[in-house]
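Write out this protein's structure.
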Amino acid sequence: LMRPTWVSVDLAAVDHNVSAFRRLVGDAEVCAVVKADGYGHGAPAVAAAAIDAGATWLAVALVEEASELRAEGISEPVLVLSEPRPDEMADVVALGGVRPTLYTEAGIEACAAAVVTDGAIDFPVHLKVDTGMHRVGVHCDKAVTAARRILKVGLSLEGVFSHCSNADVPEDPFTDIQVERFDNVLSDLASAGIQPRLVHLANTAATLTRPDTYRSLVRVGIGVYGVSPGPAVDAICRDMGLRQAMTVRSEITHLQVVGPGEGVGYGQHWVSERTTRLGTVPMGYADGLARIWGLGGEALVRGRRCPLRGAVSMDALVVEVDDEMELGDEVVLLGSQDNDEISASEVAKAVGLIPWEVLCSLSHRPPRRYSSKSSSRG
């Protein structure tokens, strides 16, 4: 027997969202980003649904994430967004159809050596250019040199890309700067006779706000899961009809009534001002719910909003309930119930996180249950 706590993932919503992005970007290809176990949803299942909806590429952060997709029988092209370590290059080449991102001399040499050992021909790679985010990537001024080196050692430069850091704020001028820098790199490459088949710059936010960033491919991450990348683009997401794929469910397993002046949870951060009925829910920070979720978050019970009370514990949280609510009632911490929905964006705003944290922090302790039809229960 298992505790009544799980994460429902609506794969029909993933299909719907990817299809919406495909319509939005026209001729550009859609790459579904499924790193971090598909933002907590389960990468293999999300990847399969995204491919079914017309995504032609997948992207991950780690070599082992690419390996998991291959082990699950997913054969579409996979881009590893960061440069693999030199000792991982042989694995990347052997996986088949997995493209490494390169941006250092050591990475280029290691990839070339692994390709020679494997016997692969025209092995495709992508070059990442740092247009100002300053995480990883080759400096714009050195992009042509890196591209030439990639070609000289016998690799095929299939793609060149960068990443927009501020596109979730549509009027932020830094996106213009990044676009200009990226275009200058592409112009320099073209002058050197280098024209990669794939050019990509747009993430979810840029895809929603900046059509000039589409190029030949867009990388859609959080949008695949039906979550807005920022308050400034919430209205665009609503207009597109994006549907949140994740619902976090549990149920009330204990009920009690406390009098005025009684505190709840570690630190007694919430103290009742009146006689209050409380329900305990068997889900906590070991499942990936931030402790502060209890200090501003809400849950849905019988379609009604119920405030969480006190800091979330490792294995439990407490919610204020009314007199009609009973043991066994379903509790939704994230997602839809009846005619209401708690979005990842709403939770993030209420407790001082970002939507990516809300999704990706969920641990593997609550099992994922998948459905391919939208329903009120998963």
